[in-house]
Design a protein that fits this description.
The protein is 70% helix and 0% strand. The protein has three helices and no strands. α2 runs antiparallel to α3. The radius of gyration is 15 Å and the shape is elongated.
């Protein structure tokens, strides 16, 4: 982001389109599979909470990448 407007555009909501919706759905599907695979493997406690929150953050980053066309 080299300009103020590029930074603002990055944070502007971009509604799903016919092109992005299947990509968002694929990301969600893969993260659900990952959480399902890890949930019972990870011991209960704050570490598990942190790990699952980081996965949520990673999913959001993936969706932002799609919405912002790779930026």
């Amino acid at each position: 982001m080299r300009t103020r407007q590029e930074a603002i555009d990055y944070f502007t909501y971009k509604p799903p389109t016919e092109e992005t919706t299947p990509k968002f759905q694929a990301v969600t599907r893969e993260f659900i599979a990952l959480v399902s695979a890890l949930y019972d493997v990870l011991p209960e406690g704050p570490g598990k909470t942190v790990a699952l929150r980081k996965l949520s953050d990673a999913r959001m980053a993936c969706n932002a990448c799609i919405a912002n066309q790779g930026l």
